[in-house]
TrEMBL record:
PANTHER family registered for this protein in UniProt: PEPTIDE BIOSYNTHESIS PROTEIN YYDG-RELATED, RADICAL SAM DOMAIN PROTEIN
Protein name, per record: Hopanoid biosynthesis associated radical SAM protein HpnH
Pfam families per UniProt: DUF3463 (PF11946), Radical_SAM (PF04055)
Alphabetic keyword roster: Iron, Iron-sulfur, Metal-binding, S-adenosyl-L-methionine
Biological source species: Caenispirillum bisanense
């Protein structure tokens, strides 16, 4: 199963509890970025463009587990940078699982062979391997030849050892439906448990700005991929909700839920979401209570116009499923509608223009480091 039954039950009861308590804003997945340093430099990445002093920062075990406790989300996705470069990652993962949280450890897999034995198979633990398509597409996406072969060899080895393994796949406007469908068939044949798929977010700092998908192209591409899957009887297991897939296929008018996947990294709690770093809060409480959420999202802010990324909209889909279980059940049974008109999109005519704040918070972080921060400490402290 793409999502363990225990996780479905745990998230379901967590959402039901939040609704009973009358909370309208609550986190579902903590995005934990314990470092920005990576051993690849992908063209579509907006996460690694920092001075060395910041790339050398790590969240300590204490900071990482403190963030898990502060946030309280039932699922933790560890991203980066490349998490396997963090020497204390096994302790962080063990500490999260000891709290009965579900951990997704994202990796480009280059270090997986070397580090795999530091971890043990568990229903609470899933490797989430970055693969953006077949050999040619993935190696181009990560700007290095041979990465696909190393990643797929590591996937097979992890499956042999009894681990749960998902792939996380980001699609750009170079994606072809036929090749993507074939790629999904290939990874399922490798024995992966689930596929997480998302259109790429147009990171303003990504070196390659020419290949991000716009909303109409995203919806058309996903309909084409799903249609091919149906035609060939493919059994793709997506580690995503049926309504999020329906949204990708253009059948839902959703606003994002940026607090659903709050992000903690070496700067602090990132505002407003995993994709946009427009400021940092010192605590999770401050993030939730003092962020001007209405300033962000499709229709509100220029940088959000094309966003359909899972970290922004999966929580919307899960909350919609909790409010409308019959709708979610019908879509999971029949799959997304691939032929009707797209659901209306949110108008963009009143969005505020983009604010370019990246260099300001990098300078602020550098100043804090000069004043006494060091490796192993958060730049927010
Ligand atoms: S639409 Fe929402 S999730 Fe996407 S970048 Fe904007 S605030 Fe973040």
């Amino acid at each position: 199963m793409a999502i363990p039954l225990g996780q479905i039950a745990r998230v379901g009861s967590y959402v039901a509890k939040q609704r009973l308590l009358g909370r309208d804003k609550y986190p579902l997945v903590l995005m934990l970025e314990p470092l920005f340093r990576c051993n690849l430099a992908c063209a579509g990445c907006g996460k690694i463009d920092y001075p060395d002093a910041i790339l050398n920062q790590r969240l300590s075990v204490e900071d990482a587990l403190g963030a898990v406790d502060e946030c309280g989300a039932p699922v933790v996705s560890i991203a980066g940078g490349e998490p396997l470069l963090h020497k204390e990652m096994p302790q962080i993962v063990r500490g999260i699982m000891a709290r009965k949280k579900y951990v997704y450890l994202c990796t480009n897999a280059l270090l997986l062979d070397k580090r795999m034995d530091d971890y043990a198979p568990s229903p609470f633990f899933t490797w989430s391997i970055h693969l953006d398509g077949d050999q040619d597409d993935h190696d181009k996406s990560v700007c290095q030849k041979g990465v696909y072969d190393r990643a797929t060899a590591a996937i097979r080895r992890a499956k042999d050892k009894g681990f749960r393994v998902n792939i996380n796949c980001t699609l750009f406007n170079t994606a072809e439906a036929e090749r993507t469908a074939r790629f999904f068939d290939d990874v399922m044949a490798m024995g992966v448990d689930g596929i997480t798929v998302s259109p790429g977010y147009a990171y303003e700092r990504a070196p390659d700005q020419a290949h991000f998908l716009n909303r109409t192209r995203t919806k058309t591409l996903f309909r084409d991929i799903f249609r091919l899957g149906r035609q060939r009887g493919s059994k793709w297991e997506f580690a995503q909700s049926s309504l999020f897939l329906d949204f990708l296929a253009g059948n839902q008018t959703y606003r994002c839920t940026p607090w659903g996947n709050p992000t903690r990294n070496v700067f602090g709690w990132q505002r407003p979401c995993y994709l946009l770093g427009e400021g940092y809060a010192r605590s999770f409480k401050e993030l939730m209570e003092e962020t001007d959420w209405d300033a962000y999202g499709v229709g509100n802010y220029e940088k959000c116009a094309d966003c359909m990324v899972h970290s922004g909209f999966e929580a919307t889909a899960v909350m919609d499923a909790a409010a409308h279980p019959l709708k979610a059940w019908a879509v999971s049974r029949k799959g997304p509608d691939l032929e009707g008109a797209f659901a209306p999109d949110i108008p963009l005519d009143r969005q505020r223009p983009a604010d370019y704040v990246f260099s300001t918070h990098v300078e602020d972080a550098m100043e804090r480091l000069r004043q006494g921060g060091g490796e192993g400490r958060s730049a927010a402290e």
